[in-house]
Automatic annotation (TrEMBL):
It comes from Archangium gephyra. Keywords: DNA-binding, Transcription, Transcription regulation. It holds the Pfam family TetR_N. This is TetR family transcriptional regulator. PROSITE patterns: HTH_TETR_2 (PS50977). The lineage of its organism: Bacteria, Pseudomonadati, Myxococcota, Myxococcia, Myxococcales. GO terms for molecular function: DNA-binding transcription factor activity; transcription cis-regulatory region binding. The keyword DNA-binding applies. Residues 212-255 are annotated as: Disordered. InterPro entries: Homeodomain-like_sf, HTH-type_TetR-like_transc_reg, HTH_TetR. Residues 30-49 bind DNA. The keyword Transcription applies. Residues 7-67 form the HTH tetR-type domain.
């Protein structure tokens, strides 16, 4: 009868494997180094996974499933927003209306959720980008990137159609710019030991995205009603006729 796998040992094994994959890449990592790092035998490894690739595949599946769930949720949230509040108009952006602020808040929360997920799986993202060459996983990350670029591009295409986003930039360029920013941030996270203020990151990213993609007219905050121009009182010259007469030099007669 096969011995049941210890769930605590499995968690320790996965943590050790993730650390080893980051250091040496998927192909360079060795099962004996993984098991030595968590105090297990090589035989114990095979109680939990058929191979190191299979173990990494399980972790990747968790990450991709969570990311796909986030993307699906954001799409549904956007559809629900438009169904409940209607499409944005140019004046919403110019006046920073309540409807506009609701959209910004919803989008910022979605951005924060993406950053939190990338932080939790920052080592996996690092391996997918830099340590999976020559394996079945080498193109997986970029496939996810393409899907997210498509989602963001469609969102901005809708905003352009409603005239609340600048129309002189192709949606795919905006989508690539935004998603590329997240990829670079994920790479930075993989080098960090202390968790950054992800909420501040999300606010900053979203501010740059929204303000930078606004139509030229909407990008300028509405001006306050101008006050009536005050006219300064006319200055009267202190050198009137009498003053000029006084200052005129007197003629002197010579004897």
């Amino acid at each position: 009868m096969a011995r049941p796998a210890d769930p605590h040992a499995r968690a320790a094994l996965i943590a050790a494997a993730r650390a080893e994959f980051v250091k040496k890449g998927l192909r360079g990592a060795r099962i004996e180094d993984i098991t030595a790092a968590c105090g297990l035998s090589k035989g114990a490894f095979y109680l939990h996974a058929a191979s190191k690739e299979a173990l990494f595949g399980e972790v990747v599946a968790e990450f991709t499933s969570a990311m796909n769930l986030l993307i699906e949720r954001r799409i549904n949230d956007m559809e629900r927003f438009h169904a409940e509040h209607g499409p944005l108009e140019a004046r919403d952006v110019a006046e920073r209306s309540e409807r506009y602020e609701l959209l910004v808040e919803m989008s910022t929360e979605g951005d924060l959720g993406t950053l939190e997920l990338m932080w939790a799986y920052r080592d996996v993202v690092h391996v997918l980008m830099r340590g999976s060459q020559g394996t079945e996983f080498e193109s997986l990350m970029w496939g996810m990137v393409d899907l997210e670029v498509s989602r963001v591009s469609q969102e901005f295409q809708r905003l352009q159609k409603d005239c609340v986003s600048r129309a002189d930039v192709p949606p795919t360029v905006i989508g690539s710019l935004i998603v590329g920013t997240y990829v670079l941030l994920a790479q930075q996270m993989s080098q960090m030991e202390q968790k950054p203020d992800l909420a501040a990151w999300a606010r900053s990213i979203h501010r740059l995205i929204r303000e930078g993609s606004l139509p030229p007219k909407a990008a300028t905050a509405p001006r306050r009603p101008s006050e009536p121009k005050k006219t300064a009182p006319k200055k009267t010259s202190s050198r009137g006729p009498q003053a000029r007469a006084v200052s005129r030099p007197r003629s002197t007669s010579r004897s």
